[in-house]
Amino acid sequence: MRRITFLAACLSVCTGCALAYATAAVPVRSTVVARPQTPVEAKAIEMLREESGRHSRTSLEFAEKLPSRSSNPVLLIATRQQVSTLLPADLQTSWQQTLSRLDPSSASEGYLVAPLRWKSMPFLVIAGNDARGELFGIGWLLRQLAGSDVAAIFTTKAFFTAPEKPVRGYQIGYRMKNNTYDAWTLPQFEQQLRDLAVFGMNTMQVVAPVSDDALTSPLYPAPALETVIGLSRMSAAYGLRFDLYYPELRRDYGRAQDQDDELKDFEALVRQLPQVDSLHIPGGDPGRTPPELLFPLVEREAGILHRYHPGATIWISGQGFDAQRYETFYRLLQQKPSWLTGVFFGPQSRDGLPIQRQRIPREIALEFYPDIAHTMHAQFPVPQWDPIFALTEGREPICPRPAGFTAIYRHFAPLHSGFMLYSEGVNDDVNKFLWAQWGWSSASSAHQTLTQYAHYFLHASSAQMAEQTASAIEDLERNWSGPLLANTHIPDTLAELRRIQQPMESGWRWKSLLYRAVYDAYVQQKRKREVSAEQEAYAALAGSGSSEEIANRARTALASSTPSATEVELHRELFQLADELFHEAGLQLSVSRYQASNWERGANLDRADTPLNDRVWIESEIGKAMQQASEQERIQRLHQLAHATSVQAGTLYDDLGNPSAEPHLVRGRGWRQDPELYETAIDGIADQTLEHGWKFSWLSYAETLYETPLRMHYDHLQTGCPYRLRVVYAGEEYHLPMRLIANGSTELQPYRLRATNPEVVEYELNPAITARGNLDLAWNRPGGAGGGGRGGQIAEVWLIPCAQ
Question: Which keywords does this chain's UniProt record carry (predicted)?
């Protein structure tokens, strides 16, 4: 049954004095009647007591039975089986009539909310189907108490709700690589568990203490094993699920010694964990074990696990497998191993989720392991992202993506039984809460979740302020849409956040949103200024005078660019917010300042001062020009440099990786139909910076995944003209051969490796290739690759007519 949203449900069923009370002043005190039957239920009531004090203006009193006399509204909280024992005799009939009318199912984790009439007093029952349902009912209550109209909860139309997905989980990696969690204590993890449970999350997945990372972190407040054990105990205390993510990392499980050592380590871990509800073992990312060795190893681990945790489920993935290993994987799954519960689908899977669902027996469940943390070089890259954002804010920035993930969730929801969110810290905090609500109901509105997020965490004091805050978060996503310098949303988004900032709760969640908005605005100002300086330098290089004068004018233009007072203030604020976010949330936005593992792992403060124009390259080229033997040669080289970015008439040019400058790139299906971009060209950026002497046009590239060719198409070409094709191969340090085919059959380049990075290659095209006035180009890589499927990267392409 789908969740009935609060806004749609706030219809009065009470009459008389109860309605009059609820529509008068907001109640400032209510009585909670609860008589917990188990430690788990007691923990839920304790959570309500403590969190209501943080998130609500309503004062709650707690009692184990109905007070004989009270002027306070009453909230009765229990499991459904217990409700009748707590209700007075004169409410029993009304309660049974409500149950008959709603006809609630017995679905696990479901809960019922029903207003009743009692002594002219507002009275609301929140009844869980089980202890976890009771907890999620309390979560619903806390979200409503945080809203601006608290009285409305007592006039809520009765409803029953249960989650669509039985598993709704998030991952914790207590490890050096993480951008936040290696600095957290158990109380901080407990607060996060509570926060996510309030929005419907039921599973904590924890990476094993030994993973593909350093064994320790300089930020650890406690050893990894101690923390993982504490997280398992914490999940048990709240009656929530605990999942162990356990990669197999030894070199060769074909060796008996490696198997034995792994099994000993595994048993030593699981016997110390108070609770394990499920085990997830990836085939790769990390790990490299072929399925024919992995399956028998996991079978033995399953036997060990069940000695200590008999009800634990076992999940495995095909991540990282090449085509041959996938075929073995599917063959082994056809045998329907008795120890295996299901398969999970995550990043670096060469076969998409629809293919896996088709190939895997229906009896074997399929779970989703989506990457909600990364914006590039990832499972769900931000589509057509301006490369300046990629260069500065990087792969792991503050990244609320309500619109993008709405589409992604609904695209995949019919194919899986639940999800575990791959995350590397709190940079994706907003996304976690969006997914929690979609896991409860795929019809949930992202905007409504954001308004509840604003009420609950940011203490938006009115519906209007919550709406404004939700819209501002949505605007952060729009900041990344389209060319950076043309995006007028960016200053408006920052201005809106500043306008609503004063009355808001200034905690780390608010500051993270502000940090993103400030970074976007700062980068836009800096890029605009540095592009202007670059243009002035090129104009100077085209001028007259001696070579020394020309060179000096160009160098002066590059060096004299100074930031405005606004840019300076944004820079200062960015660093101040980063410092506050580290001390309040452990978010590591810098390697040198906060001991982040590397800049790609969220440390984008370290890119705030990186050059955003081709200054270093231009200065290097000026130096080369000035080394020429004669004055005439020096001036000639400087004048040639002046036109380095110019495209001559008739030449067709693509700056691949720059979404606004690749007109001949065949983009493919597009991200809405193909969210993981298996059949869609991807705009990316290399692991370089411009201070190392690369041109910006080399830094950005287009690529495709696995066997999908990178295609370009040209129309209206001159017939009979022997075109010349110039290609810059540049990108990350992949050593993968590429083949170039024209018009589907003419090989222009057999499979070959890039000789240098970058590398410029030219091809003379036979006039017959363009005789029909059009041209199709396709770059392919050898088939069957595994891993992430990346590496076929091209930075620039010119199609130059014969006259040039």
Answer: Hydrolase, Signal
Beta bridge partners of 77: 126
Q: Are 731 and 793 in contact (CB under 8 A)?
A: yes
pLDDT digit string, tens, across residues 296-349: 999 999 999 999 999 999 999 999 999 999 999 999 999 999 999 999 999 999
- CA 449 – CA 542 distance, rounded (Å): 56
Tokens 């309660």 identify what position?
A: 95
**Residue 161: its H or E element:** strand 159-161
Rounded to 5 degrees, what are φ and ψ at 592? -75, -35
- Beta-ladder partners of 472: none
- Full DSSP string of 117-156: EETTEEEEEEEESSHHHHHHHHHHHHHHHTSS-GGGGGGP
Q: Which two tokens stand for residue 100?
A: 């008959």
**E strands, 361-436, where?**
365-368, 418-421
Residue ranges per structural domain of the chain: 6-161, 167-444, 445-505, 506-644, 647-804
User: pTM of this prediction?
Assistant: 0.94
Name the class of domain 167-444.
alpha beta
For residue 527, give the amino acid letter: R
State the amino acid at position 29 in one-letter form. R
Say yes or no: domain 647-804 is CATH 3.90.1720.10.
Answer: no
- Residue type present at position 346: G
Let me know: does 121 contact 21? Beta carbons within 8 Å: yes
CB 166, CB 108: distance < 8 Å: yes
pLDDT tens digit sequence for 272-301: 999 999 999 999 999 999 999 999 999 999
Query: How far apart, in whole angstroms, are the C-alpha atoms of residue 577 and residue 514?
Result: 8
pLDDT at 22 over 50: no
What is the topology classification, in CATH, of domain 6-161? Chitobiase; domain 2 (3.30.379)
Q: What does residue 43 show for φ and ψ, rounded to 5 degrees?
A: -65, -35
Other C-beta atoms lying within 10 Å of the C-beta of residue 7: 11
Q: Which helix (H) or strand (E) holds 498?
A: helix 489-501
Q: Give how far the C-alpha of residue 19 lies from the chain's centroid of Cα atoms, to the nearest Å.
A: 44
> 81 Cβ partners below 8 Å, 6+ apart?
none
Exposure letters 230-266 (e unless 16+ CB within 10 A, then b): bbbebbbbbbbbbbbbbbbebeebeeeebbeebeebb
Mean pLDDT over 18-42 rounds to 72
Integer Cα distance of 509 and 519 in angstroms:
16
CB 788 within 8 A of CB 347: yes
Mean pLDDT of the residues in the chain: 94
* 380/110 Cα distance (integer angstroms): 32
| Residues 181/172, Cβ–Cβ less than 8 Å | yes
